[in-house]
User: What shape does this take?
Amino acid sequence: MVAPAVNRWPRVATVAVFLAHGLLFASWTAHIPHVKSHLHLSNAGLGVALLGAPLGSVSAMLLSARLLPHFGSRAMVRVGLLGYCAAGVFVGLAGSLGALFIAMFVWGAFQGALDVSMNTQAVAVERECRRPLMSGFHGCWSIGALAGAGLGVIGVAVGLSLSLQLLVLGALVLVVVGSLTPRMLPETTPSTRTRSVGRPSVLRLSRPVLVLGAIAFASMLCEGASADWAAVYLRGPLHSSATTAGFGYAAFMLTMVAIRLSGNRLLARFRARVVLPVLAGIATTGFVAGLIGDRDGSAIAGFACLGIGLGLIVPTVFSAAGRLPGLNPGTAIATVSACGWLGFVCGPPLIGGLASATSLPVALGLLPVLTTGIVVSTGLAMALRHEPSGVMPKAGVRPDHSA
Assistant: This one.
């Protein structure tokens, strides 16, 4: 059924914001090796600097959960988008480790505020349209991230500085996407998500929730590590060109987008406990082969296999959490989401610390270990032994966009 015309513009505006969020997030990844070299950072130092963004995001998410009931998601999206576009410029202007950490923290804070606000708006749009739309919104985030990764590669190839690149992209986003945000729905009902996200201490940690949370943790740790270390690995140990180094994360995002866009049909035909272990097995074998190959092409192919294996993990475990008997769906999904975000936060600095103690190729060997765990856990998890898909996360809970 086609949604009424009155619902079209809020949906278009929400799609545009998801695209913009992913675009800006991924556009700087190809510049990470240059930033590392320019500031003379060790692997551990870079890991510390990168930690600023997720710390800022977590802080802003907790604050936004309290502000949304008072100001609404439309106003919060507009503020978050403005700050997100403006703060990115200062990341490229940072001249020391401390300055980079602060710039990443501020940029991450606006990332997190926009993330929570746009997901709350997405819930309102779903309710208005009376149809599941969240997976499509997050697929758009992945498409935006893929485009951003590609633009970052082009920027590096033509010698465009990170600050100038983010200034140009930010200005375009404000003009195009910012002009659509007044079309968003003015009222939301975020009280449920405020309780579940803003007060994590009340979450019920049953065994099925912990199992699904552990799967989400492992998956998003690999995602975070890929975003921040793919280009560094190709540029450093493999001595790739600056342009080639950006293709590692781009390949990861490309295959993840393809899997997510075909995921509904795939899970409608096969059960999740069959599909997820097979895909995670592809990630394990492909990434191991990429590390062993020790070449540009094999490494990029390894990251592509990792995207294949992780593409459906977080959306599927969120759906499974929402179907757990005896638990409030919003509470269960929020708990699993919190576990996944913890993995995303821990991944980059953990890889940096391991790389300093051993080497970056050895540190990246942690990723196939985690995907092997995903193979086993998704095959055995009782929560994944029910209907495969088609269950939308309950309104009021923030789904994760990096999955």
About this structure: The radius of gyration is 20 Å. Residues 264 and 390 are 7 Å apart (CA to CA). The chain has one domain: 5-384. The chain is about 75% helix and 0% strand.
